[in-house]
């Protein structure tokens, strides 16, 4: 998660560490729901659309930057986007 955080990516749950809201001398880990990669759930429905294709390409490029095995990148990203699509449908 630390490597993904460097690229400003959150995995299902966003997090940060900051001063506790009632006791400023201590710190608290704050968790919150992360947003999906695409700004609208509608973009996940059209897998041939410009936004979906651009997002797919971006995900593949990020995955390569993280030194993932090239043999599985396309299949893994396709599976990941199917999962995000399901999450987008739940959040509608």
Describe this structure in words.
The protein is an alpha+beta fold. It has 2 domains: 1-34, no CATH class; 37-92, no CATH class. It is 47% helix and 15% strand. The chain has helices at residues 2-6, 42-45, 50-65, 73-90, and strands spanning 13-19, 27-33. Strands 1-2 form a two-stranded antiparallel sheet. Strand 1 (13-19) and strand 2 form a beta hairpin. Helix 3 (50-65) crosses helix 4 (73-90). The longest helix is centred in the C-terminal third of the chain and has 18 residues, at 73-90. The chain starts with a helix and ends with a helix. The mean pLDDT is 83. Residues 3-91 form the Peptidase M13 N-terminal domain. Pfam families: Peptidase_M13_N.
Question: Which labels suit this protein?
Answer:
2 domains; Peptidase_M13_dom_2; Peptidase M13 N-terminal domain-containing protein; Peptidase_M13_N; alpha+beta; 47% helix; 92 residues
In brief, what are we looking at here?
Residues 3-91 form the Peptidase M13 N-terminal domain. The chain is of the alpha+beta class. It has 4 helices and 2 strands.
Strand numbers in spatial order across the main sheet: 1-2
**Alpha carbon gyration radius:** 16 Å
Query: What is the number of beta strands?
Result: 2
Let me know the average pLDDT: 83
N to C succession of SSEs: HEEHHH
How many angstroms separate the termini?
Answer: 27 Å
Structural class: alpha+beta
Protein name: Peptidase M13 N-terminal domain-containing protein
Pfam family, one: Peptidase_M13_N
Organism: Medioppia subpectinata
């Amino acid at each position: 998660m630390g490597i993904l955080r460097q690229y400003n990516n959150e995995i299902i749950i966003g997090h940060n560490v900051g001063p506790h809201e009632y006791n400023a001398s201590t710190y608290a880990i704050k968790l919150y729901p992360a947003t999906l990669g695409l700004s609208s759930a509608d973009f996940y429905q059209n897998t041939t659309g410009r936004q979906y294709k651009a997002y797919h390409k971006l995900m593949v490029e990020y995955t390569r930057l993280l030194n993932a095995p090239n043999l599985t990148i396309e299949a893994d990203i396709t599976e990941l986007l199917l999962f995000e699509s399901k999450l987008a449908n739940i959040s509608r």
